[in-house]
Amino acid sequence: MKLEVITAAIAAIVAVTSAVISIYGQTRIAQLTDRLTKQREAESREAQTAALMSKYRDPLLRSAIDLQSRLYNIHQQDFLQYFYHRSPSAQNYAIYNTLYVVAEYLAWVEILRREIQFLNLGDLELNRRLSELLVNINQAFAHYKGGDAFQLHNGEQRAIGEIMTVPRSSGESVGYDCMGYATFVKKMSDPEFASWFAKLRDDIDLMANAPKVNAAKLVLIHGRLIDLIDFLDPHCVRVPPEYRTRIEQQ
User: Fold this and answer.
1) How far apart are CA 140 and CA 31, in angstroms?
2) Residues contacting 191, CB < 8 A, separation 6+
3) What are the record keywords, sorted (predicted)?
């Protein structure tokens, strides 16, 4: 075989080998790039989840604490009976503040729901567990058993949460806060706004004047709020164990 032919064959083999190596290298680079991109996206979602929980954990936790405390005091400490028969101003406080702690909790649930949907956090375990706990409380409010007191259907819960949210007043990115108590009391003079709380207000009157009303629903809601508090503050940093007393089923 002539030297020219051998040289040409070797050159062809080298060229093919180089092409194969080049294609393989480009494929590997593309695969690694795709893998790194997905890893960064996953890390970004996790970081968003952590930031979101850090941002909204405290107000959601605080609202859950306030609501469970009020339910406990109504059921165990005769809160409504005491305030209703003390003075007209005390009665008004019992009504409006009890309505507010329910509405404040529903507002922060609505705000969190909007933020989670906007951030598209995916199927992270943290998000799934939180969603499960919130659904449990939602179902406790809507549950038909345990009496009609404090029963709110799903749509009513969402509506109350919606009307309680206000645009964030600071220079932060677009978002929402919960209406303050003073603003809430003022808004209750608006018949359209107050109509969303009409049934809850009737329930408060009923429980204040008929102590033997079936309040099993309050016990159910209270227990599920404690579950949420345990999740949001597992090490009892913000809420000591003695403030997580569950109401015993009777």
Assistant:
1) 48
2) none
3) Membrane, Transmembrane, Transmembrane helix
C-alpha–C-alpha distance, residues 3 and 5, integer Å: 5
- The tokens describing 66, both together, are 């306030």
Tens of pLDDT along 172-222?
556 789 999 999 999 999 999 999 999 999 999 999 988 677 788 899 999
CB 164 within 8 A of CB 108: no
pTM, rounded to two decimals: 0.77
Residue indicated by tokens 């207000």: 201
> Which residue type is seen at 242?
E
